[in-house]
Design a protein that fits this description.
The protein is mainly alpha-helical. About 50% of the residues lie in helices and about 5% in strands. The protein contains 7 helices and 2 strands. Strands 1-2 form a two-stranded antiparallel sheet. A hairpin with a 3-residue loop joins strand 1 and strand 2. Helix 1 packs parallel to helix 4 and helix 6 packs across helix 7. The protein is globular and about 35 Å long.
Length: about 140
């Protein structure tokens, strides 16, 4: 969506050698993610954020697993595990507990918007991004 998808750019900044300590954009991205993490430990952004060009949470502050995965990846690549892994643990637990018995993740709200008002359904997003984020979590977060 408009804001949460941008958090994937934290990965690109990190690949370019930027860190939380030397990059204002990373610090701002991390601050946004911390401020928008829902009570249920995940993230959820309405498609309305795109045409209005401002962050709008999902109605009822619901979460979206794909967007939670995007946010988790952004935090991981910003070095959150070294600062405070608590939000990472919460998001990881949410993703694991949301996986269904057949291995899939449930289909939720649309996560793609084209030209600010055309909503797109990417059927594979619901599985690809949560699994990718969980793999990155295992890679970046030391186990107790």
């Amino acid at each position: 969506m408009f804001h949460l998808w941008r958090m994937v750019s934290l990965r690109g900044l990190a690949a370019a050698g930027k860190t939380y300590n030397n990059c204002l954009a990373i610090r701002r991205g991390v601050e946004f993610l911390h401020n928008s993490q829902g009570d249920d430990t995940g993230w959820g952004e309405s498609w309305l954020s795109n045409p209005k060009e401002k962050y709008i949470p999902l109605e009822g502050n619901r979460l979206n697993l794909v967007q939670t995965a995007w946010a988790l990846e952004g935090l991981l690549h910003s070095g959150q595990a070294k600062r405070d892994p608590t939000p990472l643990h919460k998001a990881e637990k949410l993703l694991i507990n949301s996986q269904m018995e057949d291995g899939d993740f449930p289909q939720q709200e649309v996560t793609g918007v084209f030209k600010k008002n055309g909503m797109l359904h990417y059927a594979d997003y619901r599985n690809i991004f949560p699994l990718w984020a969980l793999a990155e979590y295992v890679r970046w977060v030391p186990l107790p």
